[in-house]
Amino acid sequence: MGFRRRSRFFLAIILLAGLCLVLFHSPLYHQVDYSHSIRNAPAEEIPNSPRPYINDNDTTAQPSTEKNKREEGVLAQPSTEKNKREEGVLAQPSTEKNKLEEGVLAQPSTEKNKPEEGVLAQPSTEKNKREEGVLAQPCTEKKKREEGVLAQPSTEKNKHIPPGLEKGILNLSISNSFAKEIPLNGAYWNRLLHVTLKWMDGGRNTIRSWPTCRELSHEQLLTNVHDFTSYPDLAQDFVRGINCKSPPILIDQPKKCSRSGDVQTFLLFAIKSIPWNFARRQAVRETWGKEGVHESGLRVHTVFLLGSSSLDDPDLRQLLAFEAQVFGDLLQWDFHDTIFNLTLKQHMFFKWSQENCPRVSFVFNGDDDVFANTDEILVYLKSLEPKKASQAYIGQVISTAGPLRDPKSKYYVPLSFYDGPYPSYSGGGGFLFSGALLQPLYFMSFVFPFFPIDDVFLGMCFKALGIVPMAHAGFRTFDIREQDRENICVHKHMLLVHQRSPRQIKKLWRGIRSPLLTC
């Protein structure tokens, strides 16, 4: 009997010891004890210990699990392929295709992450919260646009460059003299250009996914442009969206040139306008921009190039839609129509024309406040020799210009943005060029970083293609002598005069075509 009692006593002791051992190793025991130690110990005493989430309103520490929400800046995120990099924390992988070129950060290009040059790519999901100024907002009708910059969404259509565009870019040939004319220095645009030229000179094995627009962040801009905050607002907007090259089209005219039937379009007027300039557009339609086949048997077509009004302007969308339906000559894209976005407008015209009017012989590029003498233009173009016609870039040539450094000027270009002279170019009020150059100009404007002054940018593109501007005395983009501005005979043999009001345009047009005119 005594033996049995002693046996039961020792068995109870063994069971009690085992229970204590189990409780000692229990997660609950350690959880409470561990959290208590963290609450009472300085952080530096436990540098290697992971910190669980602690509710300040509860004395009981929460378990550290996969479902536990991490305190911002306390618990590090796990490093996995799915983990998205925190801005400025986790460095991008360094590969042969991802080199830092002259202070510009190049990001890796993957199927899920199509970054723009100098922009940190964010995951494209509905749950992802965009960092302010880093990730471009999706471009939808409901989205409120940042003034002057149109951000493009990452879609299946713009994740990859179309094969024709990629092939054209790979086959581009850059003039040897162009790189020498644009100096390599510390200015932001100069560095961007020479990064591009170096890439093109190195074989261009891969095309960067530039159609996907991502707005540059404020931190990245300050890294590359030290005085960025001193730029005027429009200039800041331009620099932020310098990689945005594919705004959606709002009003299209896909059958503009196909309506010609058997008669090929000889001259296409591409007129830069803005949404509220209806009177100017109508004056052009009724005079020198009137579409049809002229007495010489040459067909002329006209399109007006528009951006969008800002949110502070009256909503003209219904009026523009009606105007486009009646006249069939409006092209409009979804970007803010400002002077610094004229380069984007020109680029989008190149894209549209090589898709919809690829066989046009010549293009007249001009403003909606110029007077053009269509008959004289057609006679002149018809007289050109075939070789000269295929390389035509004709207008009032500006050969000794440089950036304006006065911040009050609408053409102001800061020294930190561009440092160097301008190549020779034709004045943007109006000029002619060969339709054969539309496609290479589109490729070139796609590859080169945008420049805020559109006629200077076009001069750079022509220069890179090896095309030299041809001066013609009939182009007067800076007007004629004041005493001659009402003289019909002076205008009789001019090709272009800038600038004129709608009323003056109609009066001049009637005058030079009058059978009673004697000069």
Offer a few descriptive terms.
519 residues, alpha/beta, Spore Coat Polysaccharide Biosynthesis Protein SpsA, Chain A, 3-stranded mixed sheet, 17 helices, elongated
How would you describe this structure to a colleague?
There is one protein chain. This protein is an alpha/beta fold. Among the domains are: 130-160 and 209-246, no CATH class; 249-473, Alpha-Beta Complex (Spore Coat Polysaccharide Biosynthesis Protein SpsA, Chain A), CATH 3.90.550. Helix content is 33%, strand content 11%. It has helices spanning 2-24, 27-40, 156-159, 163-170, 176-181, 188-201, 218-224, 233-240, 278-286, 317-327, 342-356, 374-383, 386-390, 438-447, 454-464, 488-491, 502-512; strands at 249-251, 265-272, 292-293, 299-308, 330-336, 362-367, 370-372, 393-395, 397-398, 425-426, 430-434, 470-471, 475-476, 496-498. The strands form 3 sheets. Strands 1, 2, 3, 4, 5, 6, 8, 11 and 12 form a 9-stranded mixed beta sheet that branches. It has a 3-stranded mixed beta sheet with strand order 7-14-13, covered by helices on one side. It has a two-stranded antiparallel ribbon with strand order 9-10. α16 links the parallel β13 (475-476) and β14. The protein is elongated.
Summary?
The chain is built from 17 helices and 14 strands. It has 519 residues and is of the alpha/beta class.
CATH uppermost class of the domain at 249-473: Alpha Beta
**What is the average of the pLDDT values?**
77
- Fraction of residues in H or I helices: 25-40%
Distance between the termini: 146 Å
**CATH fold-type name of the domain at 249-473:** Spore Coat Polysaccharide Biosynthesis Protein SpsA, Chain A
Which secondary-structure class do the elements indicate?
Answer: alpha/beta
Please state the second-level CATH architecture of the domain at 249-473.
Alpha-Beta Complex
Query: What's the helix count?
Result: 17
Please tell me how large the radius of gyration is. 33 Å
Which ranges are low-confidence, i.e. pLDDT below 50, for 5 or more consecutive residues? 26-160
Main pleated sheet = 9 strands, mixed
Report strand %: 5-15%
Q: What overall form do the CA principal axes indicate?
A: elongated
Number of strands: 14
